[in-house]
Amino acid sequence: RRLTIVIEEAPAQGTHLIITKGAFANVLDICTSIVSPHGDLPLDQDKRAELSGYFEQKGREGFRVLAVATRRAQAQADYGHEDESGMAFAGFLLFFDPLKPGAAKTVRDMAALGIRVKIITGDNRYVASHVAEGLGLDFESMLMGGEVSRLNDESLSYRAERTDLFAEVDPQQKERIVRRLQRAGHVVGYIGDGINDGPPLHVADVGISVDKAVDVAREAADIILLRPDLNVLSNGVKEGRRTFANTLKYIRITTSANFGNMMSMAFATSVLDFLPLSAKQILLNNFLSDFPSMAISTDKVDHEQILRARRWNLNDVRRFMIVFGLVSSAFDLLTFGILLKVFHADEPTFQTAWFVVSLMTELVVVLILRTGKPVWRSRPSRMLLVATVLVAALALWIPYIPPVAKVFGFVPLPWHLAVTGILIVFAYIACTEAVKRRFFRTD
């Protein structure tokens, strides 16, 4: 918390000028006198109290305060910490860095997203309290560096979770605070731009710095902000959660559809004299169903999914896959029964009908399972909706396009069989919506 340099004066004088700057208390500790127009005067208790009062006053006004001390010494080759002694207090350096407009609102926006903002700084308690108060943080339960050093790991974990402001801490204490928050189960992002921020930036889950930061901070950071604007982080969090939500949609829907189709194919193959779908029909089904699935990346996300962070949960994906995969298989078996027992369908008719029903159910299930809300209360993105409608229309039309139907082994479906297939799809929509409500109520 101090930095000292030695300046060589005129060689003829044979003296060096030692200049120390740093935190007020640390500089004051090595001073025995004070510079005045009448020469150096002894630094008595009254003068120390006067300097401390000025330091506290400026800190409460929001100034960052550094102290400067000097001493002339006989020239020597090497200097060490023992030479930081007997200094004369020379004065203060004041820096004022006002809060940016909207900073307090950004902190509130972060809180609404479930992100708790804390200040961990080496600055003195007074300026740190001033900044924390301006941001709307709890500055009364401040934890000082000296207290941090006396706490064991368990106590620090407890205090760190409940404290918004840490002041007068050194780089190792910053790193220790970040580690204790991580051990408590939190994902920690750390923003810093100075040399002292290197250790916490390195150990944080997400280290964030700015393009004008010192080299050490930029190299330790994972993300470099090109603008010193916390709104960039807030917007980034929202966009990240949208991306995660849409990625999870794709994985859930695709795995459940594939699981359902696998179960249906396995059952049908064991009871039919022919394949329920030929290899090229399966490839065409997958090719067409993937078009709307690719548009999931552009989909809208329910507001509730943005408000809280979510983690990967393979058990949840497995449960989703089994529940909705079995619903799909149940309707596939219903379709098989109707085709065989009611319409006595031959191989081409069976394959054509199941291709259409299977593809239609895969398309509509994307619109249903993309949201935990009732499907009519959550609008999909325009690209997803258009892609789904176009592929659904193509699915119904393919059996009636002779060149395409011939290549893939399809035949035109009688109108009553086509209507029955559409009714099965609507029944599947209603059943999946009902199961979805129960699933997400217990999710």
User: What is the subunit organization of this protein?
Assistant: single chain
Q: Provide the structure class.
A: alpha/beta
Shape: rod-shaped
In helices, the fraction of residues equals 55-70%
Total E-strand runs: 12
Strand order of the largest sheet: 1-2-5-6-3-4
Mean pLDDT: 91
Instruction: Specify Rg, calculated over alpha carbons.
Output: 35 Å
Given as residue ranges, the uncertain stretches (5+ residues, pLDDT < 50) are: none
Percent strand equals 5-15%
What would you say this structure looks like, in words?
This protein is α/β, with parallel strands linked by helices and 443 residues long. The protein has 17 helices and 12 strands. It has helices at residues 24-28, 45-60, 103-112, 125-135, 145-150, 153-162, 171-183, 198-203, 215-220, 230-271, 279-294, 303-306, 314-342, 347-369, 382-397, 402-408, 415-441, and strands at 2-8, 15-22, 31-34, 41-42, 63-74, 87-96, 119-120, 143-144, 165-167, 189-191, 206-210, 223-225. The strands form 3 sheets. It has a 6-stranded mixed sheet. It has a 3-stranded parallel sheet with strand order 7-9-8. Helix 8 links the parallel strand 10 and strand 11 (206-210). The protein starts with a strand and ends with a helix. The relative contact order is 0.07.
